Structure formats: structure tokens, C-alpha cells
What does this fold into?
Amino acid sequence: MSRNGSGTYSLPAGNPVITNTTISSTWANTTLADIATALTGSLATDGQTTATGNLQMGNNKIVNLDDGTNAADAVNLAQLTAAISTAISGVSGRILQTVTSQFTTTSTTASSSFVSTGHTVSITPTSATSKILVLQSGTMAQPSDSTPSANSMLTIYRNSTNLAGSNGIMGNVNIGYTGSIYASIAVSLLDAPATTSATVYTVYYKNTASGQTIYNYGFGAQLANLTVLEISA
It folds into this structure.
């Protein structure tokens, strides 16, 4: 057979024939037998032949591939993507994405109503059924001019909605201490926004009596973190 390792077919010796030369049976039989062997080793376009070795694609794509139906069939990219999406959608409690916001600004308020600290993070859920786990850490303080027993309340807002109600998630209580009081804070909250639109979570705070509440307070450069995780339902 005159097909080389690259798949290029060459006619056997004695070809091409010369004009006015008598064609002998030896030439004809040898040439036709060689062509027949080469054709037998080729894949028919109608699919009637079966490959007997690995197909070398040379970094080329197989295009216009139909969906596989049997266990041993190849699948196309669209079919594979759909199968993965279906499999993932059936797994609850999986983390789909994480977004983190770091905050180094010191924010103060004397308001008895919740106001924004300015510490926000935005996430766009991939599914309306997803839950959003909100994790916040930092420091909060009351300086020495605060009224004894004043409460520094902290809460989390989703857009304009207070997710923890009027009392917030936690409070830092000054119980008559004459100096400043501050504490590390860490809160968590599981939300169900029921949307696939961009959703903003913000740390809010307030002071229940006179004086000030300070968010992200401490010695030296401070770093507060606000992290949101999308959890599959």
C-alpha cells in the first residue's frame, strides 16, 4: 500500500503511464489492487466503515456533532454544558460565588436610628432560589463621652431592608465605664433575596443614647471585612 504515515497516498511504481505505451495486466492489477487497499483503509463518509485506530485530529475541532444518545457516544459542548448545569442545580448547600469587601475607614454616628457605616458589598445571585450568607468582622466602640448603659447597635441591610429589625444583630453596651470601650465584632446572617439582580449588603449602626458609636475603631490601621457567599438552595 502506498499511503504514508501522514495519510498521503502515492501511486505505486510504474505510474503515471506514458502515452502510447501498452498497458499490461501486471501494471493494471498492481495499481488497482493498491488503490483498492487504500480505499479499504479509508473511512467512508456515510459511516459504514469502522475505525481500527485512534483518529488524529491535528489540533482541529470536530464540528457539527449531534447529541450523543448511547453510553459510548461522544457528546458536544452544548450537551455537556447542559448536563453539568443540571447536575449542579440538584446539589444544595454548594457555594456558587464569594464576594468580599474590605473597609479601612473609621465611621462615627450619634444617631438613635440606624445609619450606614459606608461599608458595603454587592453580589449578583446566579439563581433566585439561592441563599446569601453574610459574614462581617471588625471593631465597634463608644468613647468616654457616651451616656452610661448606651447601646451601640449593629445590623445588616439588604438594599433598603433592615435584615435584623430595630434591635439589630448585636450591641456593644457601656455600663457606666468612664473611659472609652471598644470590642471586636463578628456577625453572620443568612438571607434569601429571591432575585438575580445586583444586591447590595451594607453594615448599619446606631447609638441608643447620647454620645457616639464608632465603627472600625482601634489602634493603628484597622481592617473590617464584609463577605457574602451565594449558597445553592
